[in-house]
């Protein structure tokens, strides 16, 4: 049940139906679109959604469905049902084309049996009655006219008409030529008057030809005469035409009688074509709005993911703009959402999107939301949107709102979706707010589901303290002073009344006077909401930045693992190759030694020969030593045998430098020499006895960085400084803030004439690490403080 009746139009559902109707190919399909309405039976809604989803998949991924001719069959079948009537030629032709479309559609799905089960159910057990088509094709030709040979009598009549027309034409041509030779004819050729072929004769010569005058020219100079000898032939043709018409009526009557027993089947065919056209139009509209089928539930709940208003989506698409997606969740625990935020911030669009998509789902339409969305079934939908004042009913705007609130509180239940825009407005806020809060309390007690938009602070406070009701706000960029159209649940939003008024250009005197007139408590609440809004925005941006860094980290990790695997593989290959070379060297060395010994024996230890063989052996050994890069080992110092560990003091060989070990990585050691860091091979250092060193020098590097981070505050005060000194100070703080990963830097420069502020901002724009800048809130320094947000 929808209340009030105009809620359908105010939510935009009538516009949705009009867009679907424009996709239909036939009048019956359009009539079905007009009858679209929300259903409350789960099985029915599920069937309609699945049919639209399957047709959408068919249109995108399959061959085109043969729907060339969709003429309405039902009216013709009802006409044929009456005994004694007959269908005209064009009516039989329309039935013939529609039946061919029906049979083509049935064959299309039979070839894809089981692929589209819900669409196949449209024509389940519907036979293909080819006898009807055959009977019509025997009488009606491809142009929709009765065939000349539809019956022997008709063929004979048409033959007689042709012969008579030829004879009449031959005789009138003879008379016309004779008249021309005698100079009796006027300018022009034979012409038709009153359906009879006539000769144009000059008025003064009209008595010279026997015949009937059918017409005269406007000037009276020409008479149109049908010769006497042709008149009888034309009468014969006319009689045969009457006979032809009577025979055609007889043939059509017999064909209608033959069609009459199939009237119920023809109506079933009509229903199939209407449904196919109807579901096709829904699928085409779903493609236009990028619609998907959500998960359908039996409970009264809504969980929309990346949802968009379909009408807004189509409108913005024409101007190359996009719609900010909406995420919202309503269930038994979070029943009513109270949406607050600035004017023109998207509150009403958010509420209308939820209501419209719910109507679309329960009407069997796909919605522009992610397929992971979940939508339940509501028995009732109540909406209070816009101004419904009525002069006839003596209702003011607020009285109309109260009438609806009365109806809502009396008839709503746990299966009702309630949508209220600008809840409580239309009267004195001092009284309208408490009344709205009382109504909201009643609706919550009845476990009603719904969305409420408001600016009233008491409703925000009530929502934050009441189970089942959740605050939500539309995010607002208080720097650019523009809405972001992003819904975030959990916290209320500010109306940004003063900020928007300031941007529009309302005088500062007026704004200050207005601030003084509102209460301190309200001022603190609004300031808190603004701060909260900014913090939420910063958290949202930080989450996006963290997600990007996590993505980058995952990519680097994958690349590192890939590189490590590559190095491990190469390491195995190198070791294997080295072992093989070592084996070859050993084999060659053994041969060389054996040959040397054999040579010494053969020379019987002759000194010259022995010396030459030894020199040859040394040369071969030296060659292999150079190839392997083997360096003679120096005599090791006994101190080097002692293991080196983090914190030990070492001396770098070949220098007098002493340093402390701060980390060890495989065969390398990282050394600290005061503020300098160096990496040396472990074999290039020797351990020495501990030496006294100031605590600062012995402090590990990581500890010092942690201390620096703990003591550093991303805030710099440059008030009273000259421009160069201020920029130098800001540069130092900016470098530390970027290095330590702080998200922002607070710069206190004062207001003055704004010169220092101008130079500071121009200087910060040169840094790629600074993403944006904004002033502090007016209540906490305003233009005298700049926040620089960092990457």
From TrEMBL:
Tagged with keyword NAD: no
Residue sites binding ATP per the record: 341-348
Catalytic class of the enzyme: hydrolase
Gene3D superfamilies per the UniProt record, alphabetical: 3.30.1370.110, P-loop containing nucleotide triphosphate hydrolases
Domain Smr: 716-791
Transmembrane regions listed in the UniProt entry: none
Keywords assigned by UniProt, alphabetized: ATP-binding, Coiled coil, DNA-binding, Endonuclease, Hydrolase, Nuclease, Nucleotide-binding, RNA-binding, rRNA-binding
Listed EC numbers: 3.1.-.-, 3.6.4.-
Alphabetized Pfam families for the sequence: MutS_V, Smr
A GO MF label: endonuclease activity
GO biological process, one term: rescue of stalled ribosome
Coiled coil ranges: 530-620
InterPro entries assigned: DNA_mismatch_repair_MutS_C, DNA_mismatch_repair_MutS_core, DNA_mismatch_repair_MutS_sf, MutS, MutS2, P-loop_NTPase, Smr_dom, Smr_dom_sf
Top-rank lineage group of the source organism: Bacteria
HAMAP family, A to Z: MutS2 (MF_00092)
Family, per entry: Belongs to the DNA mismatch repair MutS family. MutS2 subfamily.
Quaternary structure, from the entry: Homodimer. Binds to stalled ribosomes, contacting rRNA.
Function according to Swiss-Prot or TrEMBL: Acts as a ribosome collision sensor, splitting the ribosome into its 2 subunits. Detects stalled/collided 70S ribosomes which it binds and splits by an ATP-hydrolysis driven conformational change. Acts upstream of the ribosome quality control system (RQC), a ribosome-associated complex that mediates the extraction of incompletely synthesized nascent chains from stalled ribosomes and their subsequent degradation. Probably generates substrates for RQC. Endonuclease that is involved in the suppression of homologous recombination and thus may have a key role in the control of bacterial genetic diversity.
Name recorded for this polypeptide: Endonuclease MutS2
Organism: Parapedobacter luteus
Source species taxonomy: Bacteria, Pseudomonadati, Bacteroidota, Sphingobacteriia, Sphingobacteriales
Gene name in the database record: mutS2
